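Q: I'm writing up a methods section and want to include an example of the input and output format. Could you take the sequence below and give the corresponding predicted structure tokens, formatted cleanly so I can copy it straight into the document?
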Amino acid sequence: MIRTLLLSALACLFSLTAFAQDDEPQADIQFDKLTHDFGTFSEKDGKQTCTFTFTNTGNAPLVINQAYASCGCTVATYTKDPVQPGESGTVEVTYNGKGKTAGHFKKTVSVRSNAKREVVRLTIEGTMTADK
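A: Here is the clean output for your methods example:
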């Protein structure tokens, strides 16, 4: 009997803790797109850049901590200031294929933040032709 009462009390305590955590303010991130295709371009066209726009759909300020690319030919810059609920920011991704092997490429940028979903992966791709 005591064991059943103790288990019931613990179950109630865990339930209350879970509900309390759901009420805490938390940022959430929603991107306008998760992929971008540059299509076909020549190496002589230089760097290719695209912008991913995100919105804070949560109820606390959103802070991007880091945006890192899968290789050195891709660089990401992002909104550094906290993004308030309902407001938007950007992650700008630049691919530099100069001196790289021509052909199709697919790169990812991992965006780490304080949002419910801590890491979001953005993907860029395209086909670069050789500069002749």
